[in-house]
Amino acid sequence: MECPNDTPLFDLRKNSTQNFLNALSDFRSLYAPIHGVVCVGLCVFGILTNIVHVIVLSRPSMRNSAVNCVLTAVAVCDIGTMASYLIYIVHFVLQREVTCSPTFTHGWMLFLLWHVALSITLHTTSLWLAVAMAFIRRMTLRVARLNSSWQRPKFAWKLCILIYVCVFIMCIPSVFVHEISLYPEGVWQPAQRCSQFYPANYTQPIYTFTVSKEATANNCSLFKLNIWMIGIVFKVIPCILLMILSFGLVNKIRQAERHRRKLTNVSLNNPNSVDGTSHTKKKSYKSDRTTAMLVVILAVFLVTELPQGVISILCAIYTADVHKYLYFHLGDILDLLSLLNSSVNFVLYCVMSSRYRQTFWMVVLPAAAHSGKIVYRRISSRFGERAYNQSRNTHDTNNFVTKDHIDPMLLMTRWHGTAPL
C-alpha cells in the first residue's frame, strides 16, 4: 500500500540496505515452502491440547479458582484463534496450487476479512486475560485471607467478560479500515488438469483484500490511527504490565523463600527437628525450578509479543516500507511464533503444576487414577503422603494450577496482535 508523503524506513541507495532486504527475501524463499505444513501441525496439536486443557480446568477440583477461570477463557480464545488460522492456512496456502476451485473468491475474501478481525480480537483478549491473571495472582499473594474476592470465580468471569467486550469494541475499526475489491490485473482460469470441469475459455474474477479508500485518505490517517491503537493498546501496554507484574511475582517468591529459610534455620537449631536439612533442600530446589520456569515463560512471551508491538509502531510511522518489506518477508515467522505461543501452554502447565497433572490423569485414565496407580505415585513421589492429604483438605480457593505453594502465575505468553495485510 502507498501513503502520500509517507516517511521511508529504508534508504534503498545504500548497499547495506539492499543486502539486508535480499537476506530477508532469501530467508522467506527458504521458509515459505514448509510454513503451511508446520502451521497445520501446530494448529491441530494446539486445538486438541487446549480442548483437553479446558476439560481439565473445568473439573470440580479445579474450577473453584479465579485463576483457573481465566486460564479456561484463555484456552477458549486460543482454540478459536488456531481454528480460524487452520482454515486460512489450508485454503490459501496448502490447497491453492492443487485445487480446481478458485481461491480468491468474494466469499473467501470475506472470510479473510473476518479471520483477521477474529485473530486480533481473540489474541488481544487472551493477552489482556494474561494481565488479569497476573494481577489476580499478585493480589492473592498480597491478601492473607483465603476467601478474598480476588480468588472468587464469579469475579474472574465478570473480569473476563469485561475484557472481551472492551477488546471487541476496540477491534471494530480493524474491520472497517479494510475492504474487498476486484483485482484489476487478471482473472482466474482453471489449470489444464482441471479444464474438464469447466466450459472452454472459462474465467472468473479475482478479489483481493485491501485497505479501504477512506482509511488511506489524508495520508492514511485512519489506517495509521488503527495501527497505533493495535501497537500501543493491544501490545505495548499489556507487555509492560505483564513485565511489572511478573517481576513483582518473582520478588514475592524470593521474599517467601527467604522467610522459609529463616524458619528452617530456627528449626535446624531445634534438636527435635530431624528432617530439617532435607526439607530445606527440597524447598530450595523447588524454588529454583519455579523461578527458572518463570524466566523461560517470560522470555517466550517477550520473544513473541514485543517484536510485534515494535513492528506495529513502525508500521504506523513508516507504513509503506513496513508493509512492503517487513510484513511481506517476516509475516510467516510472526504467525509461527504466535502459534507456538498458543500451542505450548498445555505442556508448560503439565511441567509446572503437580495438581494439574493429577487432574489430567484422572480425566485421561480415570480407572488407573482412582485405583491410585498413577496419581498417588506421582503426587507422593514429590510431596509425600502427608503433603498430598493436606492438599486435598486445602480450601477450594487455592485449587488453581499453581497449587504448589511457591509456584508463580503461569502463562505469560500470548498471541499476535496484527496480521500481515
Automatic annotation (TrEMBL):
User: Single GO molecular-function term?
Assistant: G protein-coupled peptide receptor activity
Q: Does this entry carry the keyword Flavoprotein?
A: no
What Gene Ontology cellular-component terms does the record carry? plasma membrane
Stored InterPro entries: 7TM_GPCR_serpentine_rcpt_Srw, GPCR_Dmsr-1, GPCR_Rhodpsn, GPCR_Rhodpsn_7TM
Entry keyword set: Membrane, Transmembrane, Transmembrane helix
Domain spans labelled G-protein coupled receptors family 1 profile: 49-349
Positions of transmembrane segments: 34-57, 69-91, 111-135, 155-176, 227-250, 291-320, 326-352
The signal peptide stretch is none
| Compartments where found | Membrane
The primary site where this protein sits is membrane
Q: What is this protein called?
A: G-protein coupled receptors family 1 profile domain-containing protein
Give the encoding gene's name: Acey_s0019.g3916
